């Protein structure tokens, strides 16, 4: 039998069909094994742990056969209870395998201290973004006579006068005393009056 005759014979097609069946069977068995080995279809949905205490996190994850690892505390966030979870990885809704570790970061107990910068004789335009960047809140703005308009003259927090280098809690409200820019004119009028008085005195003499 020649090669051409064999390739067109029933015997060849039977063997070819058998080989195809064997290949599909092997592929099917491999896929089934991989599905079993990776526990495919049995993923666990990661719950939302934010705002839970560490104890509550432990109880919740134990029920799901998951574990947690506390990475660190973060700067105090007033939108979250003290010592509660602020961040987690993987995020809520992610699908993971049994025994997966969930990494968490918890809120600190309160705002830390921040050093008050030297802003006296700085303009309001300079002072305001500096204070906000440090986490402070701008409170009342009052004015008093001073040549420089909107120049920072004094800073207060809870009625206490602040000086550069003082340490107060982040998120504290800082009240500003600013120059009204009018003292120059007042001084000019005052100087004019004094000059007139001196002239009158000289004339009288």
From TrEMBL:
Residues 41-108, 110-180 form the PASTA domain. It comes from the Bacteria. Coiled coil: none annotated. It holds the Pfam family PASTA. InterPro entries: PASTA_dom. The chain crosses the membrane at residues 12-34. SMART domains: PASTA. Keywords: Membrane, Transmembrane, Transmembrane helix. This is PASTA domain-containing protein. The lineage of its organism: Bacteria, Pseudomonadati, Bacteroidota, Flavobacteriia, Flavobacteriales.
